[in-house]
Amino acid sequence: MRSAGFRRNRRIDRTAAAAIVTVLALTLAACGTSSSSSDDDGDSGGGSSDPSAPLDPKAKVTLSIDCMPPAAKAAELKEWNEDVKEFNKTYPNVKINGKSTPGQCLEPPRFTAMLKAKSQPDVYYTYFTDLQQVLDNDGAEDISAYVNDKSVPALKDIDPNVLDVLKQDGKLYGLPTSNYTMGLLINRKLFEEAGLDPNSPPTTWEEVRTASDKIAELGGGVSGFGEYSAGNNGGWHFTASIYGLGGDVVDSTGKKAAFNTPLGKQVLENLRAMRWDDDSMGKTQLLKWGDLQKQIATDKLGMFLAAPDDITYMVQQLGAKYENFGMGPIPGAKATLFGGNNYMIKKGSSPDKIKAGIAWQNFKFLTPGKGQFEWERSKADKLPVGLPQPNFWLGESKAKDDAQRSEHATMPVENFKPFMDNPVKGKAEPPKAQEIYKILDVAMSGVLTNEDADIDKLLSTAEQQVNQVLATQ
Amino acid sequence: MSAPTLSKSEATPSRTGRPGSNRTDSAREEFMRSVRRNLSAHGFLIGAVLCFSFFSWYPMVREFILAFQKNENGKTTWAGWSNLTYIFNDPAFWQAWRNTLLFTALALLLGFVVPFVIAVVLNEFRHGQGYLRLLVYLPVMLPPVASVLLFKYFYDPGYGLFNRILEVFGLPAQQWLQDTDTAMLSVVIAATWMNMGGATLIYLAALQGIPGELYEAAELDGAGILRKIWHVTIPQTKLILSLMLLMQIIATMQVFTEPFLLTNGAGPEGSTTTVVYLIYQYAFNFNNYGSAAALGLVLLVLLAGFSAVYVRLSRSSED
């Protein structure tokens, strides 16, 4: 009996072991499946491989695209779905698979991991500053041969400075969806309460300091001016400030730090004075992106350096009102940090997929009067119309877009007049931007958290460190 | 996982072997029998081995490889020692190590001693010990992010609870997380509060395993509370204490969540930048996986070396 029982158990054991091994093997095989390649999703080829030829209507293409609005952004999602429908009238052979992410479309840690795993969608969202990172990871197709006045009819009207950011060695890797330049964002309500003119935001740092002091005098936990000093955002804003004063962070060779100058000192000294001498910046420091937006949206902050899309974020996510904000040019106005967003196409995509991707981008983001520029629809959907962003059109397209934008504006556009009427020359971020920003964060947090901070020492230490970073490029 | 227990008859060699077979055949047969006998054990073991292989050992091997590679313009090439040179030349590297060691020292001072003292005190209670244990363990049950954000509010120099308390006693307000002198200590206090519940329960379990006769004998010899702790409690819990010390050092050297959330990582003038936060910066903000892996490797070697020395010293002291 015992022996028979053992034999039966052994059979069961063997079966169990075999089952376990099989299940594990299948599970691991599933885990090990690489991210979808461009051609394993039901696409049928057959289109012309000539980049300049239009997309063959017989070629079936499925495109995965990120940054589709999430369900929480109902109006934007509705417009996305309408645009897909409209796009499919011209391109019934292209299936759009939108992918949405809650919060920001791109968070650097997630983006870096996505590129590393090569799990990006066919058409994916990036910041202007991501090009080198994308190329280092062999992540994007060169689309130069595919982009022409037939595939993107308004190509000639796109600001060449914007397109240049998306090029390396003469090759184009992306198409823009939006761009911005930084300016001084103000809370109009607090300006009025402090007896300041909200239609004339401060244009110099001296004026900023005076206004900040007046606003802080309102009391009740209100700060006049706010600034970042953590999460590499402090270094980012130091760069914006020194650009505004006509300075630079890195010299023209890109090999040496260029901020340990009287202008760099002026940036830090001004912040130190506002924080400690005037006590007009609030006690809570070590702030990063998102913190100042919450303060100004709740009428606890008078001003900070920002881009126009910060206003959209505050209205849509934090419940603020458009009419409460205004913008002026960056103090100093010698130059301003510019940036923006774009889409790239995953490396390894078939010619049909690249053509379909460009066709979608052209329809959704690069045609005046259509897609994101269909301002009449945006107004009907209660979305913001009238912000000075995107701002990459020139010539005929600009005239047409500006006219439609002001016709359907949903906010008092005159609040942004000081910003729009005083355009400041845009300047790109320095090389190795994030590493430099990390170092400059220390200087920014130094003056904002230490009353006795030695500015000369902070700058010279940062200079030495940045030189070290640049030397190891 | 242990192999199934075998009956005597199953463990003895089979009687069905061919007469006259040589020793090699018999050894092979014995081996095959052994494999068959342990088939289910091996089957179950495969799961654990594969899991460890894919999720622990393979990433470690990859990390080692990555530490000597770099990515440029879509090409992965061997970088030699350049990733290590890069991290050693990064001024934040030494600052991160100084900060991490400071965190470890402060965390041991608070996080090792405080739970032990609480456990000793709790052990003396005759009534309500269960409730007190629950109270001590409660912070561990809170999600770490919630606990950290709670402390972030407490520490706020403008409207935070701690400064309000100081104000009541007429004491000057502190900058807490925003002062280079107090930032790390503030992080340690928050981390200790969040994590000491688990350590306290472990110490308490160890204390409850000490025979009461030892204390009675010590009392008869005229020992007071401190002498009882020194001569009975500590020697009797030495094993647990040394194990917890090792685990706490390894855990505190890898601190990330608390400074990342309390001070947004770097803190005032980089005073809370830790080694693991620097690894995170290299990998996810600078897209420099090679340097991140190199720094990870340095941390691994240091912790492994420390553990080996510690175990060796513990053994020699036992001998």
Question: What report would you give on this structure?
Answer:
- The complex is a heterodimer of chains A (473) and B (319).
- Chain A is of the alpha/beta class and 473 residues long.
- Chain A has 2 domains: 61-180 and 339-407, Periplasmic binding protein-like II (D-Maltodextrin-Binding Protein, domain 2), CATH 3.40.190; 183-335 and 430-471, 3-Layer(aba) Sandwich (D-Maltodextrin-Binding Protein, domain 2).
- Helices cover 43% and strands 13% of the residues of chain A.
- Chain A has 17 helices and 12 strands.
- In chain A, strands 3, 6, 11 and 12 form a 4-stranded mixed beta sheet that branches.
- Chain A is globular.
- The N and C termini of chain A lie far apart (76 Å).
- Mean pLDDT of chain A is 88; it is low at 1-8 and 28-40.
- Chain B has 319 residues and is an all-alpha fold.
- Chain B folds into 2 domains: 8-47, no CATH class; 82-318, MetI-like (MetI-like fold, Orthogonal Bundle), CATH 1.10.3720.
- Helix content of chain B is 72%, strand content 3%.
- Chain B has 16 helices and 2 strands.
- A two-stranded antiparallel ribbon of chain B has the order 1-2.
- In chain B, a hairpin with a 2-residue loop joins strand 1 and strand 2 (75-78).
- In chain B, helix 5 (91-111) packs across helix 10 (183-208) and helix 8 packs across helix 10.
- Chain B is flat.
- Mean pLDDT of chain B is 85; it is low at 1-17.
- At the A-B interface, helix 1, helix 3, helix 4, helix 16 and helix 17 of A face helix 3, helix 4 and helix 15 of B.
- Chain B: It is found in: Cell membrane.
- Chain B: Residues 1-27 are annotated as: Disordered.
Write the layout of secondary structure elements.
The complex is a heterodimer of chains A (473) and B (319).
Chain A: H1 2-31, E1 61-66, H2 74-90, E2 94-99, H3 108-117, E3 123-127, H4 131-136, H5 160-165, E4 167-168, E5 171-172, E6 174-181, E7 183-187, H6 188-193, H7 205-216, E8 223-225, H8 233-244, H9 262-277, H10 291-297, E9 301-306, H11 309-318, E10 325-329, E11 336-345, H12 351-365, H13 375-380, H14 395-407, H15 417-421, E12 426-427, H16 433-449, H17 455-471
Parallel strand pairs in A: 1-2, 8-9, 11-12
Antiparallel strand pairs in A: 3-11, 4-5, 6-11, 7-9, 7-10
Helix pairs in contact in A: 8-16, 9-16, 16-17
Chain B: H1 8-11, H2 23-37, H3 39-66, E1 69-72, E2 75-78, H4 82-89, H5 91-111, H6 113-124, H7 129-141, H8 144-155, H9 161-168, H10 183-208, H11 212-220, H12 225-236, H13 238-253, H14 257-262, H15 275-285, H16 289-318
Antiparallel strand pairs in B: 1-2
